[in-house]
């Protein structure tokens, strides 16, 4: 079960970067499409990843993770994809709750 949950979580992280890239392209063409997901990935690498330099724990890590996912859902909404935004945010929340509940 833990493997499946973490595989879905990883997929959602990759999808988040794609969403950030799509929104960045909409706002600043190729520069935005490259720099915005790079910024998000850097923030995650510094503070949220298992090998983070400045590792967040507890509520702070959960807050960072949910912020990254829900901002991606909001950006989908801004890109005129309401149903995808709701589905993406719902699955992100569900997976986050499962990770906390299963103590993964």
Descriptive overview:
The protein has three helices and no strands. It is an all-alpha fold and 104 residues long. It has one domain. The longest helix is centred in the N-terminal third of the chain and has 47 residues, at 2-48. The model has no long low-confidence stretch (mean pLDDT 95). The chain crosses the membrane at residues 6-23, 30-47, 59-77, 84-102. Keywords: Membrane, Transmembrane, Transmembrane helix. This is DUF2568 domain-containing protein.
| Poorly predicted sequence stretches spanning 5 or more consecutive residues | none
Q: How would you characterize the largest beta sheet? A: none
Number of strands: 0
Listing every helix as H and every strand as E from the N terminus to the C terminus, the arrangement reads: HHH
Beta-strand residue fraction: under 5%
Cα shape:
globular
Counting helices, strands and paired strands, the structural category is mainly alpha
Number of helices: 3
């Amino acid at each position: 079960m833990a493997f499946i949950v973490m595989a879905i979580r990883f997929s959602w992280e990759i999808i988040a970067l794609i969403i950030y890239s799509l929104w960045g392209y909409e706002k600043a063409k190729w520069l935005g499409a490259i720099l915005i997901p790079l910024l998000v990935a850097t923030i995650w690498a510094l503070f949220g990843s298992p090998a983070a330099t400045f590792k967040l724990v507890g509520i702070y890590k959960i807050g960072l993770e949910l912020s990254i996912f829900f901002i991606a859902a909001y950006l989908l909404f801004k890109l005129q994809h309401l149903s995808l935004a709701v589905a993406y945010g719902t699955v992100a929340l569900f997976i986050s709750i499962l990770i906390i509940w299963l103590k993964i």
